[in-house]
Amino acid sequence: MTVLVASDLDRTLIYSTAALHLTVPDAAAPRLLCVEVHESKPLSYMTETAAALLAELTADPEVVFVPTTTRTRKQYQRIRFPGRPAPYAICANGGQLLVDGVPDPVWRRQVAARLAEECAPLEEVHQHLLAVADPAWLRKARVAEDLFAYLVVERDQVPEEWIKQLTAWAEARGWTISLQGRKVYAVPRPLTKSAAMHEVARRTGASTTLAAGDSLLDADLLLAADAAWRPGHGELADAGWHAPTVTALAEKGVAAGEEIVRAFARTAREPGRPVDWAHLTHDQGQLDEDH
């Protein structure tokens, strides 16, 4: 029985310093493992316990771990997870399917054809974003993988009404708007993580799919999985979003990331097969030696 585990990354599985959401005394704070370095600076973390759990999970030959992200390929490839390298990865919100780190051209052509049929052109949307954004709070404007666009903003200065108006404008053209941290994403509606997850499930023969995510762009992924989890923070939590097969966790920040990996490990095991939790949490010294 093959189990596919598709997890969003930022603010779900890995966390920047700003997103850790540590609310415990310094002495009780979990030990962290850096999993991403950018421009010689540490950028993203997991707890060491979560890292050990993930390494154990990916060592199981019947589990296919699929990092699933809105990041571009270049941004994704900065991450170094513990354990066996992921044979598949979903990038650009489903627009890129990596197989052993290499983009799958067949999948990209299928995606491009569907977007051309169902959505307004990327250039039209990008130009509209630039036209309506206020320079007072706009910091950067980017196009990702020639698939979608996003703005980096000063979030506390962005009017709520502006987001509502932009959402209505985009929906009429087959696009969705999502506010995540300091980024405003404009993504074609057919560009989904769930479609790419279904393709990986087809290729691997997975009989069970598990998923996790925190944002509006993850909702379709969570709904498409047999079982899914969302943390106690993020766009979905703020909206009070629920679904019958989705577990809403109370934990926030990096603690939620740890609980998500624990849930993956617990659910993915074969029925009746015991899990050695003492082994899964690892001897701390051994973890330091391994990583």
Number of helices: 11
The CATH homologous superfamily of the largest domain is termed HAD superfamily/HAD-like
State the end-to-end CA separation: 30 Å
Query: Biggest sheet, open or closed, and with what strands and sense?
Result: 5 strands, parallel
Q: Supply Rg.
A: 19 Å
The total of beta strands comes to: 14
| CATH architecture annotation of the largest domain | 3-Layer(aba) Sandwich
Sheet with the most strands: spatial strand order: 4-1-12-13-14
Question: What is the domain tally?
Answer: 2
Find the CATH topology of the largest domain: Rossmann fold
Shape verdict: globular
Mean pLDDT: 91
CATH class placement of the largest domain: Alpha Beta
Q: How much helix is in the residues?
A: 25-40%
Bin the strand percentage. Answer: 15-25%
Structural class: alpha/beta
Structural features:
Rossmann fold; 5-stranded parallel beta sheet; 291 residues; 14 strands; alpha/beta; 35% helix; globular; Hypothetical Protein Ta0175, Chain: A, domain 2; disordered C terminus
Topology diagram in text:
Elements: E1 3-7, E2 32-38, E3 41-47, H1 48-59, E4 63-67, H2 73-76, E5 88-91, E6 96-99, E7 102-103, H3 105-118, H4 122-132, E8 138-144, E9 148-153, H5 160-171, E10 175-180, E11 183-188, H6 193-204, E12 208-212, H7 219-224, E13 227-230, H8 235-238, E14 246-248, H9 253-268, H10 277-281, H11 284-290
Parallel strand pairs: 1-4, 1-12, 12-13, 13-14
Antiparallel strand pairs: 2-3, 5-6, 6-7, 8-9, 9-11, 10-11
Helix pairs in contact: 1-9
